[in-house]
């Protein structure tokens, strides 16, 4: 499989709101490529509700998926994926939240992620929550998160071959085919 041309775009960014269907849509894009597929998970099961969400995501995926956890070292995990293997990252906003709560240098971390995505041979599908459609948050941390997510999405959309917004389970292609 390594060295084969991919059928889909090299880099796809899938955005949408909570429970919009973005993860299922992104999984379908990756599953259109030859297996085995790599699922890079950024969530951490700190409580029962999040553990249940993680379990639901795992149960939905058929055999052929290899899961790699990357709540913080997303760049390192992406760099260690074998060339030619389809990769899904779900989701960037959880990864960004982890970095923000760790008080990491967000400019450096997001810059390193954009560079890693630029280098990645693909196919690579990135999932993220579009959080900029709502009201202005009432606290500085939430406003910073919203702003950082918007900046990250803009940078990734600029280098992506395809950008898709998922609304009510329906994909709307914003860039590419």
Detailed description of the structure:
This protein has a seven-stranded mixed sheet, with helices on both faces. The protein has a single domain, classed as P-loop containing nucleotide triphosphate hydrolases (Rossmann fold, 3-Layer(aba) Sandwich). α5 runs parallel beside α6. The longest helix is centred in the last third of the chain and has 20 residues. It has 177 residues and is an alpha/beta fold. β2, α2 and β3 form a beta-alpha-beta unit. It is globular and about 45 Å long. It is built from six helices and seven strands. The N terminus is likely disordered. It catalyses: adenosylcob(III)inamide + ATP = adenosylcob(III)inamide phosphate + ADP + H(+); adenosylcob(III)inamide + GTP = adenosylcob(III)inamide phosphate + GDP + H(+); adenosylcob(III)inamide phosphate + GTP + H(+) = adenosylcob(III)inamide-GDP + diphosphate. Keywords: ATP-binding, Cobalamin biosynthesis, GTP-binding, Kinase, Nucleotide-binding, Transferase. One of its GO terms (biological process) is cobalamin biosynthetic process. Pathway: Cofactor biosynthesis; adenosylcobalamin biosynthesis; adenosylcobalamin from cob(II)yrinate a,c-diamide: step 6/7; Cofactor biosynthesis; adenosylcobalamin biosynthesis; adenosylcobalamin from cob(II)yrinate a,c-diamide: step 5/7. GO terms for molecular function: adenosylcobinamide kinase activity; ATP binding; cobinamide phosphate guanylyltransferase activity; GTP binding.
């Amino acid at each position: 499989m390594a060295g084969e041309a991919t059928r889909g775009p090299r880099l796809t960014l899938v955005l949408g709101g909570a429970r919009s269907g973005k993860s299922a849509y992104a999984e379908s894009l990756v599953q259109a490529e030859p297996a085995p597929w790599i699922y890079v998970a950024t969530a951490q099961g700190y409580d029962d509700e999040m553990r249940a969400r993680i379990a639901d995501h795992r149960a939905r995926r058929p055999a052929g998926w290899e899961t790699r956890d990357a709540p913080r070292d997303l760049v390192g995990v992406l760099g260690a994926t074998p060339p030619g293997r389809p990769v899904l990252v779900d989701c960037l906003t959880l990864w960004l939240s982890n970095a923000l709560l760790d008080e990491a240098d967000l400019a450096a971390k997001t810059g390193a992620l954009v560079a890693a995505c630029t280098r990645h041979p693909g196919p690579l599908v990135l999932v993220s929550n579009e959080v900029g459609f709502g009201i202005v948050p009432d606290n500085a941390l939430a406003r910073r998160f919203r702003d950082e997510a918007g900046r990250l999405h803009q940078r990734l959309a600029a280098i992506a071959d395809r950008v898709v917004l998922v609304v009510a389970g329906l994909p709307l292609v914003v860039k590419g085919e």
